[in-house]
Amino acid sequence: MRVAVLGCGPAGLLCALAVEQAGHTPVIYSRKHKSDIPGSQHLHGPVLNVTSPYAEGTIQFIRIGNARDYALKVYGDPERETGWDNYLQVYPSWNVQRAYDKLWDHFDRQIHHIDVDPDVVRFVVKDFGPGHVISTLPAQEICINQGHRFDGQRYYIKTLPTPEADREHEIVVYNGMLEDHWYRWSILGGKCTIESTQPFPGEEVVTGYKAVNNDCDCFQDYVHRCGRWAEWRHGVTMYNAYNKAGEIARNL
After folding, report:
1. Contact, 40 vs 91, CB < 8 A?
2. Are strands 223-225 and 205-214 parallel, antiparallel or unpaired?
């Protein structure tokens, strides 16, 4: 059967793949624009027929300072849950950019270019049926209630020259030192970036929001939300989106 997937970023195409692997036909609706993948992002597990079944790398996680000060720097709340304690010192990883490139080539012709808004969602739900629509779009884009709350934290990511000696290394540093404005520095896939909740000077700076929590229930009986932006809550990864979409598709 056909399943609509809203969004063509990494999470969107991972969900489309999960639908396809469950034996259904994904139909993708999105502005057809290939997403940039800034910062310390990676896949937390293998993707069938896209990545190696074995870890493509191992990330060394380093912490300086402490968890409370890290949460205070990032969210302004020392009690806020963060990723500080979620990883061992060395953690297996899979290259998300390489996987996304393969997925884009695979689904390129199946992406219907459209600006998805609540009216489009209504049309898609009517066409595909309730429960046959998966959204990976930021939750606000399909929200129909201006009173709904979306908690988040603005962040800035700056690309840095990658030290030649570390180009093949995978490193993520969590910085809980209050005297430093940056909270995370990483080298992943040969790309070096630094992240802060304060603006960086110069070029090569990406701005976005860390999704924290929300109270939006729009389309909840009709559309499955997969991924951190769609669910708009902390701790959801692209790999979670892939697994969740697979479970949804297998139960159709």
Report:
1. no
2. unpaired
pLDDT the model gives residue 82:
87
Nearby residues of 54 by Cβ (< 8 Å), 6 or more positions away: 46
Secondary structure class of 17 (helix, strand, coil): helix
Q: Check pLDDT > 90 for residue 115.
A: yes
- Provide the pairing of β-strand 111-113 with 90-93: unpaired
pTM (predicted TM-score)? 0.91
For residue 131, the tally of other CB atoms under 10 A from its CB is 15
Residue 202 phi/psi, 5-degree rounding, is: 90, -170
Q: 55 is written with which tokens?
A: 């870890």
Amino acid (one-letter) located at 245: A
Q: How far apart, in whole angstroms, are the C-alpha atoms of residue 220 and residue 222?
A: 6
Q: Which residues contact 194 (CB under 8 A, 6 or more apart)?
A: 157, 158, 160, 182, 184, 185, 186, 200
User: What is the dihedral angle through the alpha carbons of 142, 83, 186, 240, rounded to the nearest 10 degrees?
Assistant: -50
- Taking only the tens place, the pLDDT of each residue in 158-171 is 989 998 888 888 99
Q: What is the pLDDT of residue 32?
A: 96
Domains detected in the chain: 1-36+96-149+215-252 (3.40.50.720), 57-93+151-213 (no CATH)
Give the CA-trace dihedral at 189, 193, 197, 199, to 10 degrees.
-140
Quick one: what percent of the chain has pLDDT higher than 70? 100
pLDDT digits (tens, 9 = 90+) for 50-105: 999 999 989 999 999 999 999 999 988 999 888 888 777 789 999 999 999 999 99
Closest to 193 in 3D by CA, of 155, 162, 238? 162
